Amino acid sequence: MIEIQNLNFEYPGVLALDDVSLQVEKGDITALVGPNGAGKTTLLRCIAALDTPISGSICINGIDVLSHPREVHRQIGYLADFYSLYGQLTVEQSLRYAAMAHSIAREKISHAVQHTAQRLQIEDRLSHKVATLSRGLTQRLAIAQAIVHEPSLLLLDEPASGLDPEARHALSELFLALQAQGMTLLVSSHILAELEEYSSSMIIIRHGKIIEHQPLKAQAGQAVLVRVETTEPSPRLTALLAEQPTVEIVESDEGYCLFQFKGDKQTLHSILSILIKHDVPVYRFGEDKINMHDAYLQKVSRLKQESPA
Ligand code: ATP
Predict the structure, then answer these.
(1) Degrees (nearest 5) of the Cα angle 188, 204, 288?
(2) pLDDT (tens digit per residue) in 243-262
(3) How remote is the CA of residue 41 from the centroid of ligand 1, in Å?
(4) Residue 292's pLDDT band (cuts 50, 70, 90)
(5) Dihedral, CA atoms, 70, 71, 72, 73, nearest 10 degrees?
């Protein structure tokens, strides 16, 4: 979906992107994380064909961004970190305006506006003035404007800043719904907890360099980590698990076991049934997700040890 090779971008006296290469797969939600000034906005703007790098290449769906920026604009939606809407327009007028800006044919505009408002669950606000919307609804409208032309890729720069926890959670659900409808998302943020709710992979950028790109959720067919805990020590726990062909023990003691599992839900259910049948007092049994916050801090602290400057 996105293929970037050896990208360099310079502001006067600042190398904001330093030999960036990465790939984003179709259907992923990728979190772009890094400290202030790391280069997140610059990278998103280059992908969106809004800034021109000094060297390197960016392809979206096989189209070269630098030589075909207008074609790329049809395929992407972009929400900037700072944007402004017209407060005196209604939600419907704003969406119509965005549809026209995206060159949607006149006869298709009404359908595009209705459909997008439904996707963003703001169809009951179409007649409301933008200035009267809450922060969360304003954010939804801004995203609606960015996707009114049905792009396959959505780039979002700090989309949750200024939102309360409820609105943030609603935004996470929205991103997952867009992903389920086939969209690919690249989302930059400082707020790791929020990204964790929906991201399938994480890119860490620091001083303009990509220092990590790792999956956060197991892909179909990949092994997952499963954690089991018991109410009291049970010598049989690890022995029973070790007998299972789909299980590879990672670490364990008498009241706890972490194992890698490769199989389907039914097999996992059978393993739990075996433990229960043998009176192992299980109170916790489930997938152990990679914690994004820990993964980020571990990587950054390793890097600081390697090169303190
Ligand atoms: P933040 O999280 O604070 O938004 P960021 O990761 O998005 O930061 P960028 O805004 O891409 O980082 O900035 C990357 C580097 O480029 C920083 O050192 C920044 O100071 C510099 N920079 C950004 N915009 C400009 C500009 N218009 N002129 C000069 N330098 C700039």
Answers:
(1) 95
(2) 999 998 888 888 899 888 88
(3) 7
(4) low
(5) 50
Most informative mutation of 8, 36, 42, 52 for ligand 1 (most atoms within 8 A of CB) = 42
Q: How far is CA 161 from CA 72, 82, 171, 190, in A?
A: 27, 10, 11, 9
- Residue 182 alpha carbon to ligand 1 centre in Å: 31
Give residue 38 CA to ligand 1 midpoint distance, Å: 7
What's the predicted TM-score (pTM) here? 0.79
Q: How many whole angstroms from 296 Cα to the centroid of ligand 1?
A: 20
pLDDT digits (tens, 9 = 90+) for 163-176: 777 778 888 888 99
What pLDDT sits at residue 235? 87
CA distance 126 to 109: 14
Residue with the two structure tokens 């960015």: 146
Give me the phi and psi of 256, to 5 degrees please: -160, 145
Q: Whose CA is nearest to atom 19 of ligand 1?
A: 37
Residue with tokens 């720069």: 157
